[in-house]
Amino acid sequence: MSEEHDARASMIRSVLHPTDFSGSSELAFAHALKIALAGKSKLHVLHAGAADEDDIDWSAFPRVRRTLARWGVLAEGSAPGDVGAKLGMHLAKISSRERDPVRAIVGFADDHKSDLIVLATRGRDGLPRWLHGSVAEPAARKADIPTLFLQPESSGFVDADSGALRLRNILIPIDHRPRPHAAVRAAEQLCRTLAAREVTQHLLYVGEQGDMPAVAIEGDTPFKLTRSARSGNVLDEILAAAVECQANLIAMATAGHQGFLDALRGSTTERVLRHARCPVLAVPAD
Q1: Could you report the per-residue pLDDT of 132-144, keeping only the tens digit for each?
Q2: pTM, rounded to two decimals
Q3: Do 22 and 141 fall within a single domain?
Q4: What confidence tens digit (pLDDT) does each residue in 100-115 have?
Q5: 130 and 187 both lie in a single domain
Q6: Which residue intervals of 112-211 are DSSP H helices?
Q7: Are residues 110 and 240 part of one domain?
């Protein structure tokens, strides 16, 4: 296998961005678009809930070409085909007729082998209103897909106006359970896709230094790595460490194959997400 093939295999090839067309989803859309653009990947923008074609408000979908023109990577007035022909990114805007949005998200992600879900939250309320009360939560628990959560008040690592990338520090809280290796790999995959090389991954253990779990880094990595332990309340210490290292992203392993919704339900990840000042990448543990 060639080095080029190895590099491509370690990148994010398909991004799913579920949206409710609200203003709070604009930052999440910018991140999904930037990741797909950088990786020359597939980007599926999905809206669920339309009963038939007449219910679909196509004008409400994010303006991809307008955004790319604002970022200076596509000329104003470009044709739809230019996104793929000139930028190498495959784009599809889809409106699902599935009334339950969680079932639509999980079914679509599974059918299209999505590598990453990029989803806006509603700040300290956790899930956006359109995902509450879902009847498809059992299916969501089976969605074994890393999910990038963007809070509307967070300072993301992609500037929505210019498309500029500001990913320098990633905080990765680690513990014996769940095993943190998947989060480390997912953070590295994201960095490779974005071609973000000047990145430091900060491994943090809340507990005694001598009890800190070993995390083996597979193969050569261009990223700097630090390890630290601190004592105190887990949530408080994670949030404090994120501020101190100026984290642009927190990557966390979620317990078992619990799916993207369970990352927001009564877990450490949920509590971090509600209080962090930066995006959170929730990764199902091995």
Answers
A1: 555 444 545 556 7
A2: 0.88
A3: yes
A4: 777 788 888 888 889 9
A5: no
A6: 137-140, 181-194
A7: no
